[in-house]
Design a protein that fits this description.
With 480 residues, this protein is an alpha/beta fold. It has 3 domains: 7-161, no CATH class; 164-386, P-loop containing nucleotide triphosphate hydrolases (Rossmann fold, 3-Layer(aba) Sandwich), CATH 3.40.50; 393-458. 37% of the residues lie in helices and 14% in strands. The protein contains 17 helices and 15 strands. It has helices spanning 7-27, 89-98, 126-140, 148-157, 163-169, 179-183, 194-213, 234-240, 245-251, 263-270, 280-283, 288-295, 354-366, 375-386, 393-401, 417-423, 431-445; strands spanning 36-39, 45-47, 102-106, 111-115, 186-188, 223-227, 252-256, 274-277, 299-302, 311-314, 318-323, 338-346, 414-415, 449-451, 454-458. The strands form 5 sheets. Strands 5-12-6-11-8-7 form a 6-stranded mixed sheet, with helices on both faces. A 3-stranded antiparallel sheet has the order 13-15-14. α10 links the parallel β7 (252-256) and β8. α7 crosses α13 (354-366) and α16 packs across α17 (431-445). The longest helix is centred in the N-terminal third of the chain and has 21 residues, at 7-27. The protein is elongated, with a radius of gyration of 30 Å.
Length: 480
């Protein structure tokens, strides 16, 4: 039994629905039930003649969709006063279900995805179009629309899914060990230890599985860093890790220029599973401390566009870096994050069943396998990384006068970084040079000793270290 005073609004609602029926019938293609070409690993059904690209939340599914007429009395939360149906989470959920609209939260993309059957739209503004249709639908039932968007997010969160984990787990491992074939896709330079290459590739790929599978607390241990000549296929190799083209477009990002001070750069990175940091040496020109902290963080706190507050996301991203130059590491410390492989050749057309590779690694992960390097692997990586440091005049001059064969430094003279630089022939050291000298001393001898307000180290000096005498005589320490 309808209440008095609502006839006008009901009439308008009927008119809107009739117009909507007519518009939707004309908006759809002549074939109201498009043929399904295939179903990709993420569960997205692709209709013939319609394209879906990177992370599109507005997709085409078979069958026509028209707004459904719903009796006011069937909504879970009925109006207390007047004729307006309240906008509540329960009512929005009911409205979506009745109209066969799917709303779910993508844990990798870190956003809600709305799928409206039969609705065709452009990829460029799919988010806005999908939400506009939901608000229009709510308005047709007389709901206030100001909170409908937020309530749709809440409904989507109830049905979260992980397209990467779904892909990995959708095929049980068949027991065939494909890891040796996976390692063989990268050929290293002469002199590079093949065992270290295999260890780095294995534990990085294992960390990728952990990133997708761990409910919380995941933290990457390193960035697989492929150093090799331009054009050998480093980026193509990254793409080959996810053969499914639709899933790859959604969860793999290549040639990303990572800037830890840029919010958009960070959001774009953490909205993917595998991210290639292209031209790593250019990223090093930015804030190194923030960059190193970001790539091994366990969560991300960012404010999305138009959001009212920051959101904290569980990290589900691992990074692979590519670089052409051999000398690219600019810091003396913190380089253990970069798992460098000196690449001679790459087979990116390997044809390996990568779904089975990750399924095999998932078995290892669930059996308790760890993805950080052993102490021995760390030491071997440190030796490799030392060969990839940027050439430094300051470092070369200092190493030319320091006797690294001396183990007992108890009787050696004490030097501040400034005095040691002067002893190395740098007459007027800059602050940058002093900091670089201090970093080298910490690398060689550990922490300093504080004497008379100065940071000093006992340093063994080689007699007559330079062929040409410095323009200023060496200065001895004054702290004995």
């Amino acid at each position: 039994m309808r209440r008095k005073g609502v006839a006008g609004s009901n009439l308008l609602r009927e008119i809107w629905l009739n117009i909507g029926d007519h518009v939707m019938q004309n908006f759809q293609s002549t074939d109201s039930t498009p043929e399904v070409r295939y179903k990709n690993a993420a569960g997205i059904r692709i209709a013939r003649g319609n394209s879906v690209s990177d992370g599109s939340p507005l997709t085409v599914v078979p069958g026509a969709w028209n707004p459904k007429k719903i009796d006011d009395n069937t909504f879970p939360d009925r109006p207390r006063h007047g004729s307006t149906i309240p906008a509540t989470i329960a009512n929005v959920r009911f409205m979506l279900e009745q109209n066969s609209v799917s709303a779910r939260y993508n844990l990798i993309k870190k956003r809600s995805e709305i799928r409206i059957p039969g609705l065709v739209g452009t990829v460029d503004n799919a988010d806005a179009v999908a939400r506009a249709h939901i608000e229009s639908l709510a308005s047709s039932y007389g709901m206030p629309t100001s909170l409908v968007g937020s309530f749709t997010e809440a409904v989507a969160d109830e049905k979260s899914y992980n397209p990467v984990l779904d892909w990995i787990d959708s095929a049980e491992w068949d027991g065939t060990d494909r890891l040796p074939s996976f390692y063989a896709t990268i050929a290293v330079n002469d002199g590079y230890p093949n065992e270290l290459k295999c260890a780095l590739m294995h534990k990085w790929a294992l960390s990728a599985v952990a990133a997708a599978a761990m409910p919380s607390g995941f933290m990457a241990r390193g960035v697989l860093t492929l150093q090799g000549n331009q054009g050998i296929g480093k980026t193509s190799w990254v793409r080959s890790l996810v053969p499914d083209p639709v899933l790859r477009a959604s969860v793999v990002k290549v040639d990303h220029h990572l800037d830890p001070s840029n919010k958009d750069s960070l959001i774009s990175a953490v909205s993917h599973w595998l991210v290639e940091v292209g031209e790593l040496d250019s990223s090093f020109k930015r804030d190194m401390a923030r960059l190193k902290g970001f790539i091994t963080a366990d969560h991300d706190k960012v404010r999305r566009p138009y959001a009212k507050a920051d959101s904290e996301y569980q990290r589900r991203t691992v990074f692979v870096a590519t670089v052409n130059a051999s000398d690219f590491l600019v810091d003396d410390t913190g380089n253990s994050r970069f798992w460098t492989i000196a690449v001679k050749a790459i087979n990116y057309e390997h044809g390996i069943d990568m779904q089975q590779v990750f399924a095999q690694l998932a078995v290892e992960y669930r059996a308790g396998a760890i993805w950080h390097l052993s102490n021995d692997e760390d030491k071997r990586l440190e030796a490799i990384n030392s060969q990839h440091r940027v050439t430094s005049t300051v470092r070369d001059r200092l190493l030319a006068i320091i006797d690294q064969e001396v183990s007992d430094r108890h009787k050696c003279e004490k030097y501040t970084p400034t005095n040691l630089l002067i002893a190395a022939g740098l007459q007027y050291p800059t602050n940058t040079q002093v900091r670089e000298c201090a970093a080298l001393l910490r690398e060689l001898y550990g922490n300093h000793v504080r004497i008379n307000g100065n940071n000093v180290w006992r340093v063994p000096i080689i007699k007559e270290p330079l062929e040409e005498k410095p323009s200023r005589p060496p200065v001895k320490g004054n702290f004995d």
